[in-house]
Amino acid sequence: MVLLGAASIVLLICVVCLVSIVKWRNNSGKGKMPEGPAPLPVLGNILEVKPKNLPQTLEKLSEKYGPVFSVHLGSRPVVVLSGHEVVKEALIDHADLFAARGHFAFGEKANKGLGIIFSNNEGWLQVRRFTLTTLRNFGMGKRSIEERIQQEAEHLLEEITKTKRMPFDPTFMLSCTVANVICSVVFGKRYDYKDKKFLSLMSNMNNIFEMINSRWGQV
C-alpha cells in the first residue's frame, strides 16, 4: 500500500510537469511572446521575480531583456511593459488594442464578469462607453466639474493643515477626496471627512481592495 501510494504521487508529479512543459511550449512559441527569462515547469519565473520587491525586480529584468519582455507567474505568461515610451505607445497610440482588461478570477467568480469594475472584453467596452457618456451628462470634462475639484482641493488642504506638519500617510485622505468629487457629481453633495458613514464606506472599500490584492486574495 505504501509503495502504491508513493507510485501514485510520483505519477501525479510527472503528469503535472508534463502538462506544464506542454503548456509552456505552446505559450512560448516563436512570434507569440517577447524574450524573457526561461521559466521552470509549474514554478515559472518565481526565482527571478520577487513578489516583495516586484517593481525593482522587473526593472532589473528590463535592463537585460529590453522595455518589452515576458515572465511566467507560475504557468501563466505575462508581458511586461517597462518605461514611459512603451507604455504610452501601448495605452495611447494603440488604445483600442489594449482596451480590454486582464482576467480576474475573484471578479469572475463574484460578479460573473459583470459590472463596472470586473467586466471585460466587449462587455467592458460597452459599460465604459455608457459610463463616460453618463458622466459627461453630469458635467465630467466641463467647467462645472473643475470647480468641484477645486472646492474639494480646498477641503483637502484644510485636512492636511490639521496635521500640523507632522508626518502622515495621505493614501486614505486622498481616497476620500476622490470619492467626494464623484459624490458631488453623482449625488450633488459631498461628505465631511469626519462623517462616520462615509468613513466606514471608504474603510470597507479599502479593505476589500487590500484583500483582493493580497496573496490569499490572488490565490
TrEMBL record:
Q: Which GO terms describe its biological process?
A: epoxygenase P450 pathway; xenobiotic metabolic process
User: What InterPro entries does UniProt report for this protein, alphabetically?
Assistant: Cyt_P450, Cyt_P450_E_grp-I, Cyt_P450_sf, Cytochrome_P450_fam2
UniProt xrefs under Gene3D superfamilies: Cytochrome P450
Gene Ontology cellular-component annotations: endoplasmic reticulum membrane
Q: What is its main location?
A: endoplasmic reticulum
* Family membership noted in the UniProt record: Belongs to the cytochrome P450 family.
In its UniProt entry, what is this protein called? unspecific monooxygenase
Species of origin:
Alectura lathami (Australian brush turkey)
